[in-house]
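Quick one, T. Sequence first:
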Amino acid sequence: MSEPDQEFTREILRKVRQIEIRSNRLVSEALAGSYHSAFKGQGIDFEEVREYQPGDEVRSIDWNVTAKMGTPFVKQYREERELTILLAIDVSESGAYGSKELSKRERLAELGALLAFAANRNGDKIGLLLFSDQTEKYLPPAKGQRHVLRILREILFHENNSKGTNLNAGLRFINHVLRRRAVIFFLSDFIIPQSKEVEESAEDLFYKEISYTKKKHDLVCAQIFDPCERNIPDCGLALLEDLENGEELLVNFSNNSFREQYTQLIKDFQLKLNQRMRRRGIDTFTFSTQSDYVKSLKDFFRMRQNRRSR
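Structure tokens:
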């Protein structure tokens, strides 16, 4: 192995260890209980029988035991806690953007690591899907610390085969591969490439595919954005490059009319996305490259927990 390869390997191990320590601490301090309470298990297991009490469901009576004992007994069940978790992460080139310390992809990697360690702490199986406009990497759900660390290495250091975006490709893969019900964390900026020829059909296909995913699985969508994508600064002329296709555009950010139109366009996009997700009963939460994603995740888990207890 050459010296640069050794140095790169050491950098991988250092970064993985750094995130492992931080994620385990955050799970212990902030997320373990709320994660456990936020999601239902895959089903119920028979636990025991006990004597009937007023208010018990008649349909839960165990008639065989009742006949033997001469008094009503009911079956008791416990929820099966083991979950199957899949992290589906958009690793297209638009995730490389970041106006300050961290890019969108790096922030998604931190969130993915946190969810992976929370799942591992709870004894759940966890898998990974990395996708761009094609399937980049798939690790089937499994248990164990070594498996979680491999997931973390792939999230951080996987080198893409493609720069493009196709959210439908990720959703189709999920719908074809996962046979049993799972909890899907779908992590993306949800920017669908715009094209005069395919704009409407690409968007329609996305909502059709994600509706099918929602019917089969417990789907949670986490949307990442960078603040500069939503509030562009007054910085004069700037040359913009599309990270996915290399196209360049010279823009005057000092033009107030342009900034207002752009801001309205972003607001309309977000409103439309939120409405369509809500209409399909899909839970979403949004966080930025510069916000406290741990707080966003805790608030989301708390919302799920409160809804379950109603």
